[in-house]
């Protein structure tokens, strides 16, 4: 679909709207490498400049979820919870909150990311601990949650692979600070995790991605 991506890039560059099937095709093409990263990077930059409609953001979120599996927690004797912090300098919320919630009786499955922008990711911090593994298969992750009540992992080919691929590309193409891209990235991971309750921690300030309260409220 390499040549077919050009009209989608151009339409978004000119402020147009993409249909759900077109967004799905773009993501599928990036994952199977029929669409090169430079074309996806161009589309991401067009989104940064032109934004997305609510319908496009919803379609992109669901399309990313559908590129992988969705976790099911049937029969688990704990309430399932998840959270996302939008990040910032010194943000270590997950490192403390995940084990605390497990100890309190919840099942906490947290999918986190690597370096994004200037703050570094939760996984980067965790992998500084010798022997800490963040790449777990679905069966291993499920067994760990049922055994100890929590898992803190990264994206994998099985869970939201489209987000993992876009996450890395956004980090090196100056397309991090786009509200629809941030929202679809966050919520695709949350939905794939299958939690019954989700808390969003949206930070703002000089050390965060959202530098103003207005931008944080928009997100």
UniProtKB/TrEMBL annotation:
<dbReference type="InterPro" id="IPR000053">
    <property type="entry name" value="Thymidine/pyrmidine_PPase"/>
</dbReference>
<dbReference type="InterPro" id="IPR036320">
    <property type="entry name" value="Glycosyl_Trfase_fam3_N_dom_sf"/>
</dbReference>
<dbReference type="Pfam" id="PF00591">
    <property type="entry name" value="Glycos_transf_3"/>
</dbReference>
<dbReference type="InterPro" id="IPR035902">
    <property type="entry name" value="Nuc_phospho_transferase"/>
</dbReference>
<dbReference type="GO" id="GO:0009032">
    <property type="term" value="F:thymidine phosphorylase activity"/>
</dbReference>
<dbReference type="InterPro" id="IPR000312">
    <property type="entry name" value="Glycosyl_Trfase_fam3"/>
</dbReference>
<dbReference type="GO" id="GO:0004645">
    <property type="term" value="F:1,4-alpha-oligoglucan phosphorylase activity"/>
</dbReference>
<feature type="domain" description="Glycosyl transferase family 3">
    <location>
        <begin position="79"/>
        <end position="214"/>
    </location>
</feature>
<keyword id="KW-0808">Transferase</keyword>
<keyword id="KW-0328">Glycosyltransferase</keyword>
<dbReference type="InterPro" id="IPR017872">
    <property type="entry name" value="Pyrmidine_PPase_CS"/>
</dbReference>
<dbReference type="Pfam" id="PF02885">
    <property type="entry name" value="Glycos_trans_3N"/>
</dbReference>
<dbReference type="GO" id="GO:0005829">
    <property type="term" value="C:cytosol"/>
</dbReference>
<dbReference type="GO" id="GO:0006206">
    <property type="term" value="P:pyrimidine nucleobase metabolic process"/>
</dbReference>
<feature type="domain" description="Glycosyl transferase family 3 N-terminal">
    <location>
        <begin position="7"/>
        <end position="68"/>
    </location>
</feature>
<protein>
    <recommendedName>
        <fullName>thymidine phosphorylase</fullName>
        <ecNumber>2.4.2.4</ecNumber>
    </recommendedName>
</protein>
<dbReference type="InterPro" id="IPR017459">
    <property type="entry name" value="Glycosyl_Trfase_fam3_N_dom"/>
</dbReference>
């Amino acid at each position: 679909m390499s040549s077919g991506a050009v009209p989608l890039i151009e339409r978004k560059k000119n402020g147009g709207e993409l249909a759900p099937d077109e967004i799905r095709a773009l993501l599928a093409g990036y994952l199977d490498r029929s669409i090169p990263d430079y074309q996806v990077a161009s589309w991401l930059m067009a989104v940064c400049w032109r934004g997305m409609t609510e319908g496009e953001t919803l379609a992109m979120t669901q399309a990313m979820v559908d590129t992988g599996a969705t976790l099911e927690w049937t029969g688990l004797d704990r309430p399932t919870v998840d959270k996302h912090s939008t990040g910032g300098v010194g943000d270590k919320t997950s490192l403390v909150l995940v084990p605390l919630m497990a100890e309190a009786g919840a099942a906490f499955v947290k999918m986190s990311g690597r370096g994004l922008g200037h703050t570094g990711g939760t996984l980067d911090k965790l992998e500084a601990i010798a022997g800490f593994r963040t790449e777990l298969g679905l069966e291993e992750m499920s067994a760990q949650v049922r055994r100890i009540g929590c898992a803190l992992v990264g994206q994998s080919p099985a869970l939201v692979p489209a987000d993992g691929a876009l996450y890395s590309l956004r980090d090196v193409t100056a397309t991090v600070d786009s509200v629809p891209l941030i929202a679809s990235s966050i919520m695709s991971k949350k939905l794939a995790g299958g939690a019954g309750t989700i808390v969003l921690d949206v930070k703002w300030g000089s050390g965060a991605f959202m530098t103003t309260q207005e931008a944080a409220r928009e997100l």
